[in-house]
Amino acid sequence: MLRIAVPNKGSLSGPAGEMLHEAGYQQRKASKELVAVDPENEVEFFYLRPRDIAIYVSSGKLDIGITGRDLLLDSGAEAEEVLPLGFARSTFRFAAKPGTVEEMADLNGLTIATSYEGIVAAHLKERGIDASVVHLDGAVETAIELGVAQVIADVVETGTSLRNAGLEIVGEPILESEAVVVRRTGEGSDGPKVQQFLRRLQGVLVARAYVMMDYDIRAEHLEQAVALTPGLESPTVSPLHDQGWVAVRSMVRTKEAQRIMDDLYELGARAILTTGIHACRL
Ligand SMILES: Nc1ncnc2c1ncn2[C@@H]1O[C@H](COP(=O)(O)OP(=O)(O)OP(=O)(O)O)[C@@H](O)[C@H]1O
Ligand SMILES: O=P(O)(O)OC[C@H]1O[C@H](OP(=O)(O)OP(=O)(O)O)[C@H](O)[C@@H]1O
Ligand SMILES: [Mg+2]
Predict the structure, then answer these.
(1) Would you state the pLDDT for residue 128?
(2) In the beta sheet, which residues pair with residue 10?
(3) Residue 188: is its pLDDT beyond 80?
(4) Pocket of ligand 1 contains residue 65 by CB under 6 Å
(5) Which ligand 2 atom lies nearest to the CA of residue 11?
(6) Which residues form the ATP phosphoribosyltransferase catalytic domain (predicted)?
(7) For residue 189, what pLDDT is reported?
(8) What pTM did the predictor assign?
(9) With 80 as the cut, is the pLDDT of residue 245 above it?
(10) Given a cut of 90, is residue 131 above it in pLDDT?
(11) Partner of 179 for a Cys bridge, out of 88, 226, 227, 279, CB 3.0 to 4.6 A?
(12) Calpha distance 45→62 (Å, rounded)
């Protein structure tokens, strides 16, 4: 049975569960359940703290896990990223009161509060900066107001938490993070069950990012139309009863669908339809 670590709480938990559900895996019924078996797919899910997942996976007791790239790197565990999942996107940044820290060198001699000591210490060391790091569990933005630190290093998504605390970003992003699938470092080639799991998640990513587009076009404009909708491999072109026309079917990126529909219409295409993709294997 495949053993998979899934975040039990926080920003990663809901979207990870949704993605697994979309991939056809049975998820736990209640948020207090710590282990759930999906007998049909022969998978056992372990609902663990996101911060601990890379550590469990590196121990070799679990085959694979879902966590944040920042948490993976912070843990220092012998685990590596195998597939980015596109949710829980954030950047990891330094921030301070306006006017107190202009550039990275100003961090020398200061105290930095963070929940991600591993990432911060490595970043400072790489740049030869000598600053103290104090670990806090969360709500790090308040640490400056309360005098625990002069600088924080924390996850930023919309920037609302920083603004509310009257802080501004210092320097370049330390890291860009999103949810990722992790496995033990140096595992070699994945077994067939892990490969199948990854294919299912890749299928969800593609189904989320693409729509199927169908349209009719006069045969003489086919090449121009196909240039707009090349598809992943090659579009399907079918004859229509009216011999001057053909029907085209192709996958297009959801984000580009409206622009492509406008361009196709301009080219003379008609009956342009898009439909969602529920699942796929490429
Ligand atoms: N506001 C956010 N937007 C996007 N991703 C976030 C946000 N906050 C945290 N994350 C991401 O979620 C992961 C952290 O998960 P974790 O459950 O430890 O924190 P959390 O979502 O802040 O939950 P908690 O309430 O337990 O602190 C990290 O990968 C981080 O980048
Ligand atoms: O840029 P924003 O959109 O404001 O999001 C970033 C905030 O979200 C997370 O906090 P969370 O609410 O999880 O609280 P925590 O600090 O206790 O983890 C993170 O730690 C930041 O504080
Ligand atoms: Mg948090």
Answers:
(1) 96
(2) none
(3) no
(4) no
(5) 13
(6) 49-203
(7) 78
(8) 0.93
(9) yes
(10) yes
(11) 88
(12) 9
Could you write out the DSSP letters of every residue in 124-136? HHHTT---EEEE-
Q: For residue 190, what pLDDT band results from cuts at 50, 70 and 90?
A: confident
Q: Using an 8 Å Cβ cutoff, are 227 and 263 in contact?
A: no
Report yes or no: 178 and 68 within 8 Å, Cβ to Cβ: yes
Torsion over CA: 67, 70, 71, 74 (sign): positive
Helix (H), strand (E) at residue 121: helix 117-126
Mean pLDDT value of segment 45-61: 97
- Smallest CA-to-CA distance from 19 within 70, 73, 84, 82 is with 84
Which ligand lies nearest the alpha carbon of 156? 2
User: For residue range 59-75, what is the model confidence (pLDDT) as tens digits?
Assistant: 999 999 999 999 999 99
Span from the CA of 155 to the centroid of ligand 2 (angstroms): 6
Report how far residue 270's alpha carbon sits from residue 282's, in angstroms, rounded to the nearest whole number.
Answer: 28
Q: Is the CB of 254 under 6 A from ligand 2?
A: no
Residue 274 pairs in a beta bridge with 213
| Position in ligand 1 atom list of the atom nearest CA 92 | 31
Using CA atoms, how far apart are residues 256 and 236, in angstroms rounded to an integer? 19
Place of tokens 């078996």: 37
Contact 119, 174 (CB under 8 A): yes
**What is the residue type of 84?**
P
Q: Residue 172 C-alpha to ligand 3 middle, in angstroms?
A: 21
Q: Is the pLDDT of residue 252 over 80?
A: yes
Domains in the chain, please, with CATH? 2-87+178-188 (3.40.190.10), 90-177 (3.40.190.10), 210-276 (3.30.70.120)
- The encoded tokens of residue 130 equal 């000598």
Q: Which of 27-41, 116-130, 185-199, 219-233 has the lowest mean pLDDT?
A: 185-199
